[in-house]
Write a structure and sequence with these properties.
Rossmann fold, 2 domains, 26 strands, binds iron/sulfur cluster
């Protein structure tokens, strides 16, 4: 029998990160925060704490592959091992380094001449290949295949006097996307790349400070959202900050006038109950759904209501927007739960003769046949990556015998890979790219009555843009906001393949 790990085709983020400074039992808060950030990475999790005694500082570590609840299922780990008043944590979805390789699980911890240092990273560096070559050439020994370890080595090799100066110098050498939490003996340093690709929020819980990828991690521990960490900002949180209630912050040089936040965070990755880039994800996602209905309405049949279903869970909010706008436009539309998603699948064993892909989709989704039979159905999905899951879903829906199936996508066609921290396949594997964006051909391939994507213009209309805020749209437009070194592109593709093996 073949063993099969079930993964449904969706873009994956690299990670979720959280840091807490100044709260006894910090690992508990980090644990709950990581649970809230589980959607950002499900393959591994880890927590590092700083514990101070009268004469020593210890860094305690626990990290493993698996979901947060599995990695920390033993209470003793949180209460007896991960002691201390400062902690950082990380959920990993691996693309740099083999998925199941325990050595790549973050946070990464080292001990160097300034003491202990632990780091957790969300994003992807675009000059990692060159930096790794330079460091290896200078005698650096790497313990992992992640680009995150490069940052640690750059900090450790810096000749600057203080940890903050060393971090600051290291961050000036890296390019691409990084939201970071770095724990040293005496500080929590929180940093974001100059373009602000990935979200990073700052909050307070009593006197303690919290930094997390999304505000849903602050909510779960009862922390108050204070503000986002600014693009290019390096925030220093230490005992003085906890006592005085204020953090210190320094800015990296060459911060562009406008940020380039990842617009895909709004479309799919972030939770709808989070606020990212200064805006509610729920609000933007509804607007996106409304825009899709404006651009690509489906008319109801004379006396029959149009049935609009979402691909749960990530498309639910956009679907609500689609239905409300359809109603405004005089279309008799009804939001229905036509697809049920199982949240409990993990591993299964299949006979080699079974159709693996059909089984994957059927284990994850089922239709509510009574809702679909004989109806004109619109299915709203947030994106199409390779197209394989979409095809299987349409097949599943057709088995329920609807009269028509119309596919609506709440993002533009994905034509290009992402080098800033999302797991998209190479160009030739992307569905829209395979058909050169030809809607007619893609409609035939999916076997639907009609197919429409949201336009890039409408997408940009749905997000807040001002003199400081703007967005990366490279996976749709091919316009990468930063240079991506070509050997780093090759390394990136090799790592993606390695991670999938
Ligand atoms: S390429 Fe796409 S997924 Fe990657 S950062 Fe840009 S918008 Fe986000």
């Amino acid at each position: 029998m073949d063993e099969l790990t079930l993964k449904i085709e969706k873009p994956k983020t690299f990670c979720g990160i959280i840091g807490v400074y100044g709260a006894e039992g910090a690992s508990n808060y980090v644990y709950y925060g990581l649970n809230a950030l589980q959607h950002r990475g499900q393959e591994a999790a880890g927590i590092v704490t700083r514990e101070r005694t009268a004469d020593r500082i210890f860094f305690n570590v626990h990290k493993k592959t698996g979901l947060v609840s599995d990695v920390f299922k033993d209470d003793k780990v949180l209460h007896e091992i991960l002691r201390g008043d400062a902690a950082i944590g990380h959920n990993r979805y691996s693309t740099t380094g083999a998925a199941e390789s325990g050595k790549n699980v973050q946070p990464i911890v080292v001990n160097y001449r300034k003491g202990n240092l632990a780091i957790a990273h969300n994003g992807n560096l675009t000059n990692s290949h060159r930096l790794r070559d330079e460091l290896t050439g200078a005698g650096t020994l790497f313990q992992t295949t992640t680009d995150t370890e490069i940052i640690l080595h750059l900090i450790a090799r810096s000749q600057k006097e203080t940890v903050i100066e060393q971090v600051y110098e290291a961050l000036q050498q890296i390019r691409g996307a990084f939201s970071l939490v770095i724990l040293s003996d005496n500080q929590l340093i929180v940093a974001r790349d100059p373009y602000g690709f990935r979200p990073l929020a700052l909050g307070k819980l009593g006197d303690a400070f919290i930094a997390a990828s999304e505000t849903c991690a602050l909510d779960v521990i009862g922390a108050e959202y204070v503000r986002d960490v600014e693009p290019g900002e390096v925030v220093v949180i230490d005992d003085e900050a906890v006592e005085g209630g204020e953090v210190r912050s320094i800015f990296l040089p060459d911060i562009p006038k406008q940020s380039r936040h990842c617009i895909f965070e709004f479309i799919y990755f972030s939770r709808p109950d989070s606020k990212i880039f200064g805006e509610s994800v729920d609000k933007v996602r509804r607007k996106i759904g409304k825009g899709l209905a404006e651009e690509a309405p489906v008319q109801n049949d004379e006396d029959e209501k149009l049935v609009v279903i979402s691909v749960p869970d990530s498309s639910n909010t956009a679907t609500l927007g689609y239905v409300s706008q359809s109603l405004k436009m005089g279309i008799k539309a009804k939001f229905e739960i036509g697809l049920i998603r199982s949240h409990y699948i993990g591993r299964t064993f299949i006979q080699p003769s079974q159709d693996v892909r059909d089984l994957k989709v059927k284990m994850k989704f089922n239709t509510v046949k009574g809702v679909l039979k004989g109806r004109k159905v619109v299915i709203v999905d947030d994106s199409i990556v390779r197209g394989t899951t979409s095809k299987q879903l349409v097949r599943l829906i057709r088995e329920a015998e609807p009269s028509e199936v119309h596919f609506r996508v709440s993002s533009p066609p994905i034509m290009h890979p992402c080098y800033y921290g999302m797991d998209f396949p190479s160009e030739k594997e992307l569905f829209a790219n395979q058909f050169d964006g030809d809607i007619e051909k893609m409609t035939d391939e999916l076997n639907v009555d009609s197919l429409s994507y949201l336009s890039l213009e409408k997408l940009l209309d749905s997000v807040p843009i001002d003199e400081r805020r703007n967005y990366c749209t490279a996976c749709f437009s091919g316009e990468y906001p930063t240079e991506v070194e070509s050997n780093s592109k090759e390394e990136f593709e090799a790592n993606i393949n390695e991670a999938r093996e």
